[in-house]
Design a protein that fits this description.
about 70% helix
Length: about 500
Amino acid sequence: MSFLSLSFPVFLVATVVAFFLVPKRWQWGVLLLASYVFYASWGVLSVVLLLWTTMLHYVGAVTIGKAKNHGKRRAILFFCIVADVGLLFFCKYAAFFSRSVDEAAVWFGTAPPALQLPVIAIVGVSFFTFQAMAYVIDVYRGTSAPERSLGILALSFAFFPKILQGPIERAGHLHAQLRAGHAFHATRVFEGLRLMLWGFFQKIVIANQAAIVVSQVYAAPESFSGSALLFVTYLFTFQIYADFAGYTDIARGVARIFGIDLLQNFDRPYAATSIADFWRRWHLTLSFWFRDYVYIPLGGNRLSLPYWCGAILIIFLLSGLWHGAAWTFVVWGCIHGLSIILDRLLQPVGAFLDTHLFHRSFLRVRHACSVLLTFHILVFSWVFFRAQTLADAFLIVRKIFTELPAFVSHIESDTFATVTKGFVIDSLDVLILVACVAFFMFVEHARAFPVAVARFTALPTWIRWGAYYVVILLILTFGRFEIQPFIYFQF
């Protein structure tokens, strides 16, 4: 079961009705049962591993909270983290490790080992293990108290709106909300439905439509021109944003109906002025996780420049591997890490230019140029994120850079039709998709400003409902309702 399955609305309505009918002290029990029913639809093994993670961290955190001996506390923490990393390794990286050993053996001219490790696909494992690690580390540090209720801890890991794809929650933010009783509020339910509607627009109209073209072109990049590859890479840049942000909005909307606020995960990422700024806007809960549990323990901003560069590369190597067990994701992470390092190294130059050469009136131009440059670094990095192999990624990059100059010099009135020739959807559908992307980016930009949101909510009812009906009409008219899994499900 997923947010896009036909059974989900029935499941959600039944859960909401049961949640508000039972006494408030048992509402968490309804959510726990519903969450395990939801997650069980993805396989029995998934539930078993989630139960194992829950029991391990319940016992571990309670024991850490009671233990007076520092060595014992550290040993329990170490065991929990090793167990989490081991679970991630066997579910996500064992097959990658096996393939890499085989490739290295062939490279060095030796026989590859006979051991072939299987791929164990557990949806959401990266998200609930990272949340579990954060919880036990916070208990060890004393920033969170150990959760005495096994049910509340189990629900915090399994809560069905965020189990598959985040956000990666923290105990201090989520546990009290799950424990509290919640009365029915029509305003809150409406806010949740509005978030869900916008999330479905992002997924069904933009991400699903773009996925058809992106999948076609990236499956056979040798068959398309450099201009087509560049256009489709731009398209994927917005596809992955709409896909992931769409899921997050649906998840936050569902949780809002129950009176629970999940953490925000996006803040206009493509308005970033640097790659470091991008990671303060994109997948915020993962960024904060790496900051709090990897970057700061490694030394953070206190490190000398060489060690700081090493710490950044480690973090983004891990981030790349977290996203996927393939060398394409490793390269993607390295591009981001090296971009942040280069930006840090060039900061004195930028400060000098701002002070001595650029007039204040040029600061807006400089800001716009920074956004444009950062955006295109991201577009370049998404090639490696989306490509099936490194060979495909390098082929796409080579064709874009070698064929694009000739294409630009011969732009004509029918150029767009030429670029989209061979796509599985026609040029008109592509133009409609581009228009929907522009609408999506406009709304996302406006949502970031409380004043704009307040002005919209203050509009007459007929205008606001007219806007909602327009979004519904766009979904029904231009949406692709074929089941296209959310991209981050695989992570």
